[in-house]
Amino acid sequence: MIRQKSRNDNAFSSGRKILFKIFHYVVLIAIAAIMLIPLIWMLGGAFRPHNEIYQSSYPLSWSTFIPQKFTIDNFTHVLFTRNFGRYFLNSVYVAVAMIVPSWYVNSLAAYALERLDFFGSRFSYGLILTTMLVPIQATLVPTYLLIKQLGMHNTLWALIVPFISEPFAVFLLVQHIKDIPKDLDDAAAIDGCGFWQTYWKVILPNLKRSLATVTLMKFIWAWNAFTWPLIAINSSSKWTLQVALATLTTRQTTNYGNTFAGAALATIPPLLLFAFAQRYFTGSTALSGMKT
Amino acid sequence: MLSRISKLASELWQDRLENFYGWMFVLPALIGVLIFRAWPMIRAFFLSFTSYSLIFGDANFIGVANYVEMFTSSRFYSSILVTFQYTFMRVIAEVLLALIIALILRKGGPFVKAVRITVFLPVVTSLVAAAVVWKLMYHPIFGIVNGFLNAVGLPTQDFLASVTQALPSLTATVVWKHVGFSVIIFLSGLNAIPRQFYEAAEVDGANKVQQFFHVTLPLIKRTLMYVIVITTIFSFKVLGPVYVMTQGGPRGATRLLVYNIYETGFQAMRLGYASTLSVVMFLILAVFTFFQIRLLRSEVEY
User: Fold this and answer.
1) Pairwise CB contact (< 8 Å): B22 & A165
2) Cβ contact (<8 Å) for B142 and A140?
């Protein structure tokens, strides 16, 4: 049974206190272990030949997780023979092409909605936010038809264009702009800046922190996206990493080493990004609860 | 007199300029959002009344025939049932675990911080990669889950191949992946409780358990409800694990509504009927999303 560790509880003898402390640490380690073991197995398996994985899987021991014969053959096979290098690049391309324009599109809209007083601004903002309600899983079919009609079907653009404008990003940026003092706007106006100039010189530079958060979240979302890329793309040369991994694994999973290498490729970049940029996560995810 | 007129004129001009720029700036985002989110949803409603099939290429208006078919289809009802079973299991498991873990991870300290990171790691991994790894983990012979079970003396299980175990296994994978997200939300909710409440309770002679039930629990009620609602919403959206691990089987035991939509629309190519299913899914989700928005608003104010 898991209980909250007691702190300054004087009713307990010090022996009991130590017991609680040990119990606490055991529980912490157990949690970390459960979270990490699948990832460790995957990582270990990616670097070993697949018959070694089979042989060491039963009975369970340290050797199940630690490679005896370290090899990168799985990676070379998967990257070159199985074309995962191509898919990796596709994923990178889609993510970057989606993110860079989104900086400007969303922040421009946020600036206009928050700072500019124009007819219908509140209505537009409401409209933009309301579209957050639409679950993409319910619009797979019509969006697919739309993509076909726009001629984007089976191109990487289909994965990029629909996601450049992002209501949640607009929301976040509007909140951030609220914190930028209006005096800066006025100072820029005095210096002769029009709205466009004010945007570039005053607003955009001050939004960097929010844009960084948005970029991180969007990158991870774009990198991990599966359902839409699965549907929008037909030719295997345009697969993104996730689609490739899913499709190739469903067909045949005889070589665990290769599968693990593919999975590692598919999951390492977001992990690395997370490791280096944690502090951006804990704040905003609590407020969002949006895409996963 | 003239100067007043010219001042008025320049103000009017300023207003018009602001209007113009306002619209120009907001247009790219607005158009993008209207074309790719609002319009498809509207179109789905219309499509649901047609027999659009990509194989046969025609889109005839067939009235409510799709809806009739859906309401008399056992596959539809079974996918709804499966979805609710899955959602029920997942929400309970994830919310309870997340709350417990958040309570354990509440205090600081470097070790706790490290564990917090490990709890959030699976959230960032790709759902597909997680599904792939867990699929192998569930393997009856070579999977390490059975390895662990055998090591403590329990018999080997079929997991994904068993009609009764497939859905819970799928649920376990998704909970593993996503619990960190809920933990973070609970942590921020827990941290919002001011220390004084606990100190006051302690002065009144409450022990730790009583403090939990009388201070903590009431004050995180909103957070709790919020986590329940968003986890429910997320449950309706997961396609990846089903596609990778079970493809709806065995014998439809894991055919979630969203997978049914995928199968109907993109394997059988019946876009009209798939739209009907999508409309149903949207309506169900709309109810929950409504609650989510209400909770989000009140939470921010709180």
Assistant:
1) no
2) no
3-state helix, strand, coil in chain B (%, to 5): 75, 0, 25
Average pLDDT, chain A: 84
User: Measured between CB atoms, does B25 come within 8 Å of chain A?
Assistant: yes
Phi and psi at residue A248, to the nearest 5°: -70, -25
Residue listed under structure tokens 């697969």: A239
Residue with tokens 């421009």: A108
**ipTM of the prediction:** 0.84
**Res. A289: pLDDT tops 70:** no
If you measure CA to CA, which chain A residue comes closest to B114? Answer: A32
Q: Could you give the CA distance from residue B47 to residue B164 in angstroms, rounded to a whole number? A: 36
Say whether A58 and B137 touch across the interface (CB within 8 A). Answer: no
Question: CA-CA distance, A225 to A223, in Å (whole number)?
Answer: 6
CB atoms within 10 A of CB A251: 8
**DSSP summary character for residue B220:** T
Asked whether the beta carbons of residue B26 and residue A121 sit closer than 8 angstroms, the reply is yes
3-state secondary structure of B113: helix
Cβ–Cβ contact B256 with A under 8 A: no
> Rounded CA gap, B24 and B204, in Å?
61
Residue B264 contacts residue B57 (beta carbons within 8 Å): no
**End-to-end CA separation in angstroms for chain A:** 30
pLDDT digits (tens, 9 = 90+) for B12-58: 888 888 888 888 999 999 999 999 999 998 988 888 888 777 666 66
A49: preceding bond cis by omega (within 30 degrees): no
